[in-house]
């Protein structure tokens, strides 16, 4: 008689449904609320991986290139936002000076 192996693991591992039923009601509610969001994130992840795999470069290299592009884009957006805020502050400052005169 053999004890262990893949059959034992399969037998003792709970299904997702069994795990979900052991959650307390609050966790079940949160899990159901976030399920769609997590599924969309996973679908986006898989879609991006498929796009990256079409390149002749390794997937991680393409991933790093896109991350770098996103970082640069984020930095540019932040710089633009700061410039706009500074321009608005300067306009308010000039308006206050003109109202004092």
TrEMBL record:
The keyword Lyase does not apply. It holds the Pfam family CBP4. It is found in: Mitochondrion inner membrane. GO terms for biological process: mitochondrial respiratory chain complex III assembly. Its main location: mitochondrion. Keywords: Chaperone, Membrane, Mitochondrion, Mitochondrion inner membrane, Transmembrane, Transmembrane helix. It is a single-pass membrane protein. One of its GO terms (cellular component) is mitochondrial inner membrane. The keyword Thylakoid does not apply. InterPro entries: Cbp4 (IPR012420). It comes from the Eukaryota. Essential for the assembly of ubiquinol-cytochrome c reductase. It has a direct effect on the correct occurrence of the Rieske protein, core 4, core 5 and apocytochrome b. Belongs to the CBP4 family. This is Cytochrome b mRNA-processing protein 4. The gene is cbp4_2.
């Amino acid at each position: 008689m053999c004890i262990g192996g893949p059959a034992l693991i399969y037998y003792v591992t709970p299904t997702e449904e069994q795990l979900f039923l052991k959650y307390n009601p609050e966790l079940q509610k949160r899990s159901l609320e976030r399920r769609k969001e997590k599924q969309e994130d996973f679908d986006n992840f898989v879609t991006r991986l498929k796009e990256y795999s079409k390149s002749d470069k390794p997937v991680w290299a393409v991933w790093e290139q896109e991350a770098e592009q996103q970082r640069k884009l984020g930095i540019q957006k932040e710089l633009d936002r700061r410039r706009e805020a500074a321009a608005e502050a300067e306009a308010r400052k000039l308006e206050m000076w003109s109202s004092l005169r």
